[in-house]
From TrEMBL:
Positions marked as site (Stabilizes the basic form of H active site to accept a proton): 101
NCBIfam families, per database record: pth (TIGR00447)
Protein name: Peptidyl-tRNA hydrolase
Residues reported to bind tRNA: 24, 74, 76, 122
PANTHER family per UniProt: PEPTIDYL-TRNA HYDROLASE
Organism whose genome encodes this protein: Prauserella oleivorans
Length: 197
């Protein structure tokens, strides 16, 4: 399958989405940051401020050279820092993997895809606009739909519930595993491994 393994170049960019600062740290919208923190722990490194406008860490995962990036901008402005980091490290769009929260995926599930729309996600919309293409990888951390009539925008800016938090570390870990599977073995292998739930 074409576009099965991210990035033909030297590096793969793993960009996690979220909002900066302690106020947002536990929000559903910050699932991407949580997964990137787990990947950083696996590398054994610390994020450092980069001129592209992101916290960046270089290392190796699944036998690949990777650049981890957490934009220092707010979610709806993620595109600038992600694209700035990609350009700095000479990474083409098909070497970009974006890890983000997804309302249309049940909590605890992980979905992976290449390309497609933004599904109302402001971070993805910003990245697609800045990259000038939809053709990049997405690893979607399921946060489920809001209960009752709660607005989706309010829901993603709330922390995970007490019940959800019991499984949160496990789910973050699983999503990080999916990222490693994607960059190490390709999209089809990762989908086969993680889409069964």
């Amino acid at each position: 399958m074409e576009h099965d393994l991210p990035g033909a170049g030297e590096h793969v960019l793993l960009a996690g989405l979220g909002n900066p600062g302690p106020r947002y740290a536990g929000n559903r919208h910050n699932a991407g940051f949580m997964v990137l923190d787990e990947l950083a722990a696996r590398i054994g490194g610390k994020f450092k401020a980069h001129k592209a406008g992101a916290e960046v860490l270089e290392g190796q995962l699944a036998g690949r050279k990777v650049v981890l990036a957490k934009p220092r901008s707010f979610m709806n402005l993620s595109g600038g820092p992600v694209v700035g980091t990609a350009r700095f490290f000479k990474i083409a769009p098909d070497g970009v993997v974006v890890v983000h929260d997804e309302l249309d995926v049940p909590y605890g599930s992980v979905r992976l895809k290449f390309g497609g729309g933004d599904n109302g996600h402001n971070g993805l919309r910003s990245i697609t606009k800045s990259l000038g293409t939809k053709d990049y990888y997405r690893v979607r951390f399921g946060v489920g739909r809001p209960p009752g009539r709660m607005d989706a925008a309010d829901f993603v800016l709330k922390d995970f519930s007490t019940v959800e938090r019991r499984e949160l570390a496990l789910n973050v870990d699983r999503c990080a595993d999916a990222v490693e599977e994607l960059i190490g073995r390709g999209l089809t292998a990762a989908q086969n491994a993680f889409h069964g739930d």
